[in-house]
Amino acid sequence: MVRLKTMTRARIISSLDEMQQVAEEVRLSGRRIGVVPTMGFLHAGHQSLIRVARDRTDLAITTVFVNPAQFAPGEDYEKYPRDFERDRILAEEAGTDVVFHPEAQQMYPHDYQTFVEVATMTKVLEGKSRPTHFRGVTTVVTKLLHLTKPHVAVFGQKDAQQAVAVKQMVRDLNLDVEIIVAPIVRERDGLALSSRNIYLLPHERNDAPVLYESLQLAERMIEAGERNSKNLISAMSSLIEWKKSTAIDYISIADAERLEELDTLRPGNKVLVSLAVMVGKTRLIDNSIYTV
Amino acid sequence: MVRLKTMTRARIISSLDEMQQVAEEVRLSGRRIGVVPTMGFLHAGHQSLIRVARDRTDLAITTVFVNPAQFAPGEDYEKYPRDFERDRILAEEAGTDVVFHPEAQQMYPHDYQTFVEVATMTKVLEGKSRPTHFRGVTTVVTKLLHLTKPHVAVFGQKDAQQAVAVKQMVRDLNLDVEIIVAPIVRERDGLALSSRNIYLLPHERNDAPVLYESLQLAERMIEAGERNSKNLISAMSSLIEWKKSTAIDYISIADAERLEELDTLRPGNKVLVSLAVMVGKTRLIDNSIYTV
User: Domain B195-291 adopts which CATH fold?
Assistant: First the structure.
């Protein structure tokens, strides 16, 4: 088995056909493929996912594609940060073998009209604020899985609901791929890494760690015996609202697999505490999973 | 390359995991897979599709699955004809190597919630009469393609809109499979073969060839220079209404690839003339494609 890990430069592929042919050849040669779908503007969080793919498979593919289908009109599709040369270097540094960088017009030609939708669990949390977002995510992930033919695909826990929706979609559609969800990578002060953090003004950046602090507060309260979701959410809210640049979109305490909101925590519950907060004009998300 | 074509008995697989493993092993051995998705109750039309798969690939898989997701409440899901032993024999006779016969509960477990939808072209024709039908079709075809991992999938021209929707879906989602659409097989009197023909009472069976006769009439009129869709549809209607057991659901003259209705035929147009007619209590469909 030839390992491609010794390549210093990653192979850059933008053609859909070429990507699919390379993937098919690699599979036929008996090697395993791992893919990390990203929207680019990579940071250490993405790099941790690429390392998982690299360590688990023979060929690590990083996809860099800002997916128009997961942005609603008025969201930040146009101004979403893009810097391919930087992405290429960071992906290589983390050990990717291939960077797949397709064009939007190839991915969504003018007569494009097929969508993959996970019905129930994409209507809550992020889906409530962004009603067509997850349809765009599951559609592009299906396309990227067909194009890169991986044995393993790695997603970040940062986008908790996305990870749950993708797992459900893969299970429902019988895709033959293992989904790995890798932990959130944080700054020293606790702020979860995100490509959108670059939007933050200095005083907003100072306020932003409050998302993680509120999750830690919830964890301490659960450990101390608090079982009422309202009390947890109210304490988190108070902490966050103390920071002037913040405006809470939602705080949710839900079943970690089915994403159904929980009023009361019960022993054995695997609980996803998640939140979305505007910090200035930037919408940040964060989450933690606890087993009660 | 080992040909499995000499097997007299097909391998019967009902487990989803087993099907996917077999498919992966066959692919890894360098052999090509062809699949024919059916709802069972096979006839010579299905057999012609199986022969195409057998002739084009090394392993022909026939799937036999009455897909609940493509029936609306009140349609004939419960009473849709089923006879697996008969299907097995007919599929073997046509040269299938594998019959994949999954259970509905395995295909759609209780928390199932993912659907693949082709947006525009499934809203017309059959989609107008059966609004959730094609969502069920494209969803189950996606699942079956993931489970059987074919190089080639064969569909019948009889379900013209289904074939167009599946081709669009495969193109949009970048599925690495070639879709072949094989011609309609007819009885001597022109009636298109259909599993639903067994519902017809004797006098209805006598009336049923009028669907094909109306298509032939349209063809003769187009050849004679008729370019107005209204005139074509009106002539077809008159011919069909002459038969007492019939009630027309729709007659459509549309672009054969985009399924947009055409008022006027123009030179070079590839035209799908399609119709759905109740014959007694049985809904029959038929179609022809002409290049003007």
Answer: Pantoate--beta-alanine Ligase; Chain: A,domain 2 (3.30.1300)
